[in-house]
Amino acid sequence: MERVTIDDIRAAAERIRPHVVRTPLLAARWGDAERPLWVKPESLQPIGAFKMRGAFNAVGTVRGSTSDVVAYSSGNHAQAVAYAAAAFGLRAHIVMPRETPNIKVQATRDLGARVVLSEAGQRETVAAEVLADTGGVMIPPFDHPDVIAGQGTAGLEIAEDLPSVRTVLIPVSGGGLASGVGTAIRALCPQARIFGVEPELAGDTAESLRAGRRVDWSIEDRNRTIADGLRSQPSELTFAHLQRVLDGVITVTEDEIRSAVREYAYRGRLVAEPSGAVALAGYRQGGTGDGDTAVILSGGNIEPSTLRQILTEAAPT
């Protein structure tokens, strides 16, 4: 299986440069003294999540060969593909599960995409039907080299901004972000340790890496977590990358995820969706070693009512 390389990621960085924000690496003075905390706020992207990177790289490579692109996503990839398609003058058809937060469904429609809702666990099947109807090109959320390379540009930026980084914590679900960022960090900061972070209630990647093979969790089990963007499972392609680039996977509880959302809001003045906050939750567990630690805040698209509930669950510390 051909894996993405640092050269692929550098090429992606050039391709997406006109369209994607080069997010800062923020020094979080409220981190622990022995392991300085740095936050990569991908929530500052135009659609509020890192998915912009992979979408623009993948859509940019097919823009001259099709008028229609198809994607399936619980929300952030959906918005990213819709945004990229609009930028390139293409039609976007997005399949989203019915349980997707309405704020993400409406945002995707507002970007001009046609949204098709599917039942839980059926989004890929429905997307295949839409693809056959439109004759377009599929832009999967993680299972594609161009998507992985695009996501890896966030790791390229971390390496450029913090060459001394000792630990990098990355949210993991389908594995595209961790595959790409991990590849970039491995190539440019070989001294760094790299960890994926996922909810305990969707801990299939941690179990799979322990077993040395992909372990299937039911969609009903994975849907239990509040981190709705982390309910996917790695593909063969991303799992092959994760086996090579990750030092391990940290699993976090629902309470730890909610606490991280509050910490970002109260201490970092940043809005994080639960899926975007898991890397900080992993940092708070400790055990990853001392030295400069970079965490990726992968997205900030959270329902206002959910954010309000989480913020009022406990007073700021």
TrEMBL record:
Catalyzes the anaerobic formation of alpha-ketobutyrate and ammonia from threonine in a two-step reaction. The first step involved a dehydration of threonine and a production of enamine intermediates (aminocrotonate), which tautomerizes to its imine form (iminobutyrate). Both intermediates are unstable and short-lived. The second step is the nonenzymatic hydrolysis of the enamine/imine intermediates to form 2-ketobutyrate and free ammonia. In the low water environment of the cell, the second step is accelerated by RidA. Its cofactor is pyridoxal 5'-phosphate. It catalyses: L-threonine = 2-oxobutanoate + NH4(+). The keyword Transmembrane does not apply. It comes from the Bacteria. It comes from Mycolicibacterium gilvum (strain DSM 45189 / LMG 24558 / Spyr1) (Mycobacterium gilvum). SUPFAM superfamilies: Tryptophan synthase beta subunit-like PLP-dependent enzymes. One of its GO terms (molecular function) is magnesium ion binding. CDD domains: Thr-dehyd. Belongs to the serine/threonine dehydratase family. This is threonine ammonia-lyase. Residues 16-299 form the Tryptophan synthase beta chain-like PALP domain. GO terms for biological process: D-serine biosynthetic process.
